[in-house]
Amino acid sequence: MRNDEQPVLLVTGGSRGIGAAICRSAAGQGWAVAVNYASNRAAANAVVAAIEAAGGTAIAVEGDVGSEAGIAAIFAAVDKTFGRLDGLVNNAGIVDAPARIDEMTAERLERMLRINVSGSILCAAAAVRRMSVRHGGKGGVIVNISSMAAVLGSAGQYVDYAASKGAIDTFTVGLSREVVSDGIRVNAVRPGVIDTDIHASGGLPDRARDLAPTIPMQRPGTAQEVADAVLYLISPSSSYVTGAILNVSGGR
Ligand code: NAP
C-alpha cells in the first residue's frame, strides 16, 4: 500500500534490461516506480509484479518517448496515479543495425535522434514542469543514460548512436546548470558494454560476449551494476553531485 509521502520515480524503458534493474532497485529503496515501456507490456507487467511481490509500489505505463503524444500519455498516467513526481531516469534508448556512414539514411537518423535525444529532452522538460520549485514542486532528480559510445564514437558500427549519446552528455551538463536553482539535480551514467537485449535488437546478439577481451575488466557489465550507479545518483547520498557523468564501463 502506497503512502502519499512515498517519492515517485519515472523510468523510461523500464520494462527490460538496464531500466528494469533500475525499477527493481529503486522500489527496494522506497520509491514508487512508474515502469514505462514502448510495446512489451508483458515485460513491464513482470517488473511491476516482481516489485509488488517484494512489497513495493509500481505501475506499468505505456508510451513511446519518440512521440509527443506518447510522452504526454506517460506523464498523464503518472499524474493520475501518483499525483507527484520526484525523479526521472531517461533510460529508453535504441541502437540500429551496424552500418558505415555511407549506408545511413535520413530515416534511420531521424528515428535515432527522435527517440534517444528528443525523447530524453522532452521527458526532462515534462519532469521539470512538475518537480521545479519554480512551478510549486518540491525539487527532484534526473539521471540520463548516456553511453561510453559518446566518448569512443562507435566507428564502423553506429556513429549515429554515438552522436546521440554525445548530445545526452552535453544536455546533462547544460540542464544541470539551468535547473540547479529549481531544486533539481541532473546527472548521467555512461554504461560500457552491458549484457542486455539491446545488442540483439541491433542484429549482434553476441556483441557483449565478443567484446569481453577488449574490456579492461575482461567482461561485460550487468544491468544491476548500472542500476547501482543510478541509485546513488537519485539518492540523498549524492546531494552535492550535479552535472556529473559517471562511467560504468569496467575501464572501457
Ligand atoms: P534494452 O534491453 O534494449 O531495453 C530497452 C528498453 O527501452 C525497453 O524497456 C524498451 O521497451 C524501451 N524502449 C525502447 N524504445 C522506446 C521508446 N521509443 N519509448 C519508450 N521505451 C522504449 O536496452 P538496454 O541495454 O537496457 O539500454 C538502456 C539504455 O542504456 C539505453 O539508453 C542504451 O542506449 C543505454 N546503454 C546500453 C548499453 C548496453 O551495452 N546495453 C551500453 C551503453 C548505453 P519495450 O520493452 O516495450 O521494447
TrEMBL record:
Belongs to the short-chain dehydrogenases/reductases (SDR) family. Its EC number is 1.1.1.47. Keywords: Oxidoreductase. It comes from the Bacteria. The keyword Cytoplasm does not apply. PANTHER family: OXIDOREDUCTASE, SHORT-CHAIN DEHYDROGENASE/REDUCTASE FAMILY (AFU_ORTHOLOGUE AFUA_5G02870), SHORT-CHAIN DEHYDROGENASE_REDUCTASE FAMILY PROTEIN. InterPro entries: NAD(P)-bd_dom_sf (IPR036291), SDR_fam (IPR002347). SUPFAM superfamilies: NAD(P)-binding Rossmann-fold domains. It is an enzyme of class 1 (oxidoreductase). This is Sugar dehydrogenase. Pfam families: adh_short_C2. GO terms for molecular function: glucose 1-dehydrogenase [NAD(P)+] activity. Gene3D superfamilies: NAD(P)-binding Rossmann-like Domain (3.40.50.720). Coiled coil: none annotated.
